[in-house]
Design a protein that fits this description.
By secondary structure, the protein is α/β, with parallel strands linked by helices. The chain has a single domain, classed as Rossmann fold (3-Layer(aba) Sandwich). It has 4 helices and 4 strands, in the order αβαβαβαβ. Helix 2 links the parallel strand 1 and strand 2. The N and C termini lie far apart (about 40 Å).
Amino acid sequence: MTTKNNMLKLPKILAVDFDGTLVEDEFPDIGKPKWDIVLRVKKLQEQGWKTVLWTCRDDNTPEENLSKAVNYCTEVLDLKFDAVNTNIDEVKEMFINDTRKVYADYYLDDKNLPILGGRGHKPWQ
């Protein structure tokens, strides 16, 4: 059984979206890089964070959109991920399967709504 203590033993994990986050959203094409985001992800990787490319792109299309995005990350952005649209190995072992939701400490996505409200901040309205 998975316990909170087991989860605390995992490395820090960042799930990061592709279109609109690492690159400008030009789907199905690939937009221009957002270098400020790319550099922040690389910095976290240097600090030991595991990263998951977490995107709606898949290879069930004639254009093989997921493969194009992964290759772009590797060849153009010089960004390699520990997993792509799946959990890292440590999480799979802990849950004894690959859960549908990618487990991460943080999710970086251009479609996020902030949930941490401050004075006067009402993200749900």
